[in-house]
Amino acid sequence: MNSINPRIYSFDYLRAFAMLLGIMLHSSLFLVETSNEWWIVPNNEVYNPYFYIYFVIHTFRMPIFFIMSGFFGSMLINRLGISDFLKHRVRRILIPFLIFVTIYAFVFPALYIFRDFYNVGNGFSYAYLTEVYNYISSPKVILNANPEHLWYLYYLFMLVLLHIFVYWAVIDKSVFKIGRYMLILLVSVIVIATFTMALFMKDVLLDIPDKGFVPLADMWLFYTCFYLFGVLIFKNKIILRSITNNLVYYILPVIVLIPIAIVLFFTYHADKRFLTKFASVSANTAITWLLSVILVGVFYKLLNFKSKVAQYISEASYWIYVVHLPLVMFLQIILAQIEMDTIAKFLIVNIISFAISIITYHLFVRSTFIGKTLNGKRYRFTKPFAQID
After folding, report:
1. Helix, strand or coil for residue 48?
2. Is 3 helix (H, G, I), strand (E, B) or coil?
3. Rounded distance, CA 369 to CA 358, Å?
4. What is the pLDDT of residue 2?
5. How far apart are CA 2 and CA 293, in angstroms?
6. I need a surface site. Which of 18, 58, 92, 139 has the fewest CB within 10 A?
7. How many Cα neighbours within 13 Å face the side chain of 363?
8. Residues 6+ apart with CB under 8 A from 369
């Protein structure tokens, strides 16, 4: 089977890159003015460079996740068959989601309570511990639980079930191997569908379905389009050839569109007109797709090689994705009370969050049952990079 579906290291690295960008994106939020209403550490400063970091990463990061998930999902179901594919996805997606969403039902409220106590000088006081105990021992801990940043796993598992149903229902497994012009038509429909759904979201930036366990139909359909695009990439290698051969034609437009999209974002938040929203969403959708295909093309063309360091970080990235957010939030609570240059704060949160995540991965995950659950493999404990296949 490996001769039929050789491992594409570049896409492992791309998926890891998208996961690691989560640290940078979340680290920017306590420095971004738009985070006032919903982030753990409000910031009253006007728009600053950290907003642009957030803006650009937010446009493509989650779509990349779903494109890669569609690609690897299609590869796995072809290799394993329906039954083993379902077992694989339950072990690697559903079980980690259920475990960590349960843990975070306690952790995130404790962080918000800590913020309130720390801001008045109490921190880890007896009163704080009492307040946390009162909260986690009440029905609120269940009633207020949310997927938080693990919503990706939640929505992805629903897509896995849809993928299994379609694979089972379609007798001719080559149905997604289609002609060039039909492929262009289908991809065009997918792009238009994502624009249409984005147009009816609450804001011009992509909504984040991290609150509540009732799936949002528009968000699920939106990301289904990117998952389907990943399936099409796997089934039709002509897409990869087209992307890699025409990268320059994607790069130049996105360079022009990003500043236009930022101006339109500010304009929409000033006038709230539908016409402005239409223009803003149009630019954002174009950037989402352009950056997504650029990254797919660049990684596939330039980074499709075996590297012990890159593979190690790729395997660690799932753990980093799962655990980084409470680390980031805790550091932001502490640093918000310290007079310090914002660049230093941004770098401290990024570096310490990554360092703690990678160290805990090596010490407590890589060679334990946790690593086997997340990555399907358990290594003998040794120095980093020593046992990469």
Report:
1. coil
2. coil
3. 17
4. 39
5. 25
6. 139
7. 6
8. 378
pTM for the model: 0.91
Burial of 58-91, coded b for 16+ CB within 10 Å and e otherwise, reads bbbbbbbbbbbbbbbbbbbbbeeeeeebbebbee
pLDDT digits (tens, 9 = 90+) for 107-124: 999 999 999 898 888 878
Instruction: Record the tokens describing residue 156, joined without a space.
Output: 């992805």
C-alpha distances (whole Å) from 121 to each of 118, 128, 221, 336 are: 5, 11, 46, 13
- Going by C-alpha positions, the residue among 102, 29, 25, 105 that lies closest to residue 62 is 25
Total count of residues recorded for the chain: 389
Q: For the chain, give the longest Cα–Cα distance.
A: 68
- State whether residue 337 is helix, strand or coil: coil
Nearest to 162 by CA among 81, 221, 97, 214: 221
Instruction: Tell me phi and psi for residue 81, to 5 degrees.
Output: 85, 170
pLDDT per residue as tens digits for the range 312-355: 999 999 999 999 999 999 999 999 888 888 899 999 999 999 99
Q: How far apart are CA 283 and CA 265, in angstroms?
A: 10
Ramachandran quadrant class, 217 (left: phi over 0; alpha: psi -120 to 50; beta: rest):
alpha
With the C-alpha atoms ordered 281, 284, 286, 289, is the resulting torsion angle positive or negative?
A: negative
C-alpha distances in Å from residue 60, one per residue of 32, 254, 281, 293: 18, 12, 13, 10
Give the torsion sign (CA, 16, 21, 27, 33): negative
Q: Name which of 44-48, 70-74, 231-235, 295-299 the model is least confident about.
A: 44-48
Q: What is the DSSP string of 74-107?
A: HHHHHHH-HHHHHHHHIIIIIHHHHHHHHHHHHH
Task: Report the alpha-carbon distance of residue 389 to residue 101 in Å, rounded.
Answer: 31
Across the range 280-288, mean pLDDT stands at: 96
- Please, what is the Cα angle at 219 between 218 and 223, to 5 degrees? 115
Phi, psi dihedral angles at 366 (to 5 degrees)? -55, -40
Distances (CA, A) of 213 to 37, 144, 198, 210: 21, 11, 21, 8
- Is the separation of the CB atoms in 160 and 92 below 8 Å? no
Whole-Å CA distances, 192 to 60, 79, 215, 266: 16, 32, 22, 24
Q: In angstroms, rounded to a whole number, what is the distance separating the alpha carbons of residues 72 and 375?
A: 14
Could you give the percent of the chain with pLDDT greater than 70?
92
